[in-house]
Amino acid sequence: MKEHDRLYEEAKESGNHCEVTAHYYSVMSNVIDTYFGGNFHFASPDSDDIYLEEALLRLHRKIGGKLELQEGVKCLDLGCGIGGVMRDLAPTKATLTGVTIAPNEEEIGFSFVYSKKIRILGNAEFSKMGISNCRIHAADICDMKCIVSNSQDAAYAIYSLKYLPKLDAVFKEVSRALKPGGKLAIYDLIKTPSYNEENLEHRKIVEGLEYACGMPSLHTAEEMQNAAEAVGLELIETVDFDEKNGRAYHYCFSQSALFMWLITSPFICNF
Prior knowledge:
Elements: H1 2-14, H2 18-36, H3 52-66, E1 74-78, H4 84-89, E2 95-100, H5 103-115, H6 124-127, E3 134-138, E4 152-158, H7 168-177, E5 178-187, H8 200-213, H9 221-230, H10 241-245, H11 251-254, H12 257-264, H13 266-269
Parallel strand pairs: 1-2, 1-4, 2-3, 4-5
Helix pairs in contact: 1-2, 2-5
């Protein structure tokens, strides 16, 4: 935690959270793989009897459906981590290219993808198996030199834009990478209009999240929309799944007695 604290304080001073984010995921990637099935984000389930894994799978499929992923479609996973979402969307047969800022996640991701029998694009080791539609690159999503301009039909960002202090650069890069008419889907934590900066409890919750994950100040939906429109992207649809499903985004976690005990245990608090 000392290293995390140091990097987080440096990030707050410099405004650049790349190093603390990369460190966080370098430390957490194996945990995310082992205990969270490769996906470390929340999803609001549409019924009480659904566990996190199924809620996430349904969310990912909804995103894939909105982006019309199918064979012949090229799609970017912005901030892909170790490839959990790519694993769930691989059956669409779309060509999925993941970008992660943590170099070790590229290696873990390939291993994870292989262990789950997910397809990897351009990997000679798997070409003999006829596996060909997923690949992970280690790069900054604000500067994706590995991605050719106007080459992607779609892109999605799941819990990744919250790590960027400013959104201009990433939307500019996405706009560059997408073909004319290409679609972008974003699923993220944001501050809602009801957030009150003067409310101590509100600030405590939000700042606790920001510290734990090495994030800058959370964005609002308006900030995201304005940054997207500034580079010519047009809003098609917005959905609040908490409202639509009638359950909070953290439902699958907060309803788990084991998880709630774990995050308040002395072991975690003193780590």
